[in-house]
Amino acid sequence: MTDRKFPIGPFIPQESYSAEDLHSFIQTIENTPAQLRKLVENLSNEELAKTYREDSWNIRQIVHHISDIQYLHYFRMKKAITEPDNDEMALINMNAWSATTDSLTAPVTDSLLTFEAITTRYMFLARTLTEDQLAIRYYHPVRKIWFTQKDALAISAWHVQHHLGHVRWALGD
To answer: Could you give the angle at which helices 19-40 and 149-170 cross, rounded to 10 degrees?
Structure first.
């Protein structure tokens, strides 16, 4: 891939997901905090400033972004099951968030801790969803598609692995 944008390929939603798929998504999401910690916890400030391609976020920004988005994924799931009449998902401006002072300078240990904690809560909730709750849909106005909770878990699993790939690229792996 010459543009180095998608280390695991772009996200492609499927028509349906099996129980095994959902279990796999949950396992992927649950395992990622330890993988990310192993990759970045001992990096120097110079290493955290490395990027995976020209004009991309650096490793520090990616770590903070992963934590931020994991919370957003949890928030969206919880909002969808508690506010069924609200069918448009919450959005953020990811580039603006990555340019805030905390994303540019805060220690990654803070985001590693929050990523670990929110992932635990998020996956606890995900495991408890009924078939009816998994079928709840909401609209993604940027992607212009409807997501079910199953789709949300699929993209969440893709998202964390996607950015682990970026960190590995930045580190030269």
So the answer is: 30
Non-local CB neighbours of 61 within 8 Å, separated by 6+ positions = 98, 103, 104
| Burial call 21-54: b when 16+ CB within 10 Å, e when fewer | ebeebbebbbebbeebbebbeebeeeebebbbee
What sign results for the dihedral spanned by CA atoms 55, 153, 28, 119?
A: positive
**pLDDT per position as a tens digit, 47-97:** 999 999 999 999 999 999 999 999 999 999 999 999 978 877 888 999 999
Q: Whole domain around residue 145: which residue ranges? A: 19-49+58-170
Per-residue model confidence as pLDDT tens digits over 123-156 = 999 999 999 999 998 888 888 888 899 999 999 9
Instruction: Render pLDDT for 39-59 as a digit per residue (tens, 0 to 9).
Output: 999 999 999 999 999 999 999
- 8 Å CB contact between 126 and 153: yes
Say what the pTM is.
0.95
Which two three-digit tokens encode residue 114? Answer: 């929050």
Integer Cα distance of 100 and 85 in angstroms: 33
Question: 148: which DSSP letter?
Answer: E
Residue 6 forms part of a structural domain: no
Lookup result for tokens 């960190």: 167
Name the domain count of the chain.
1
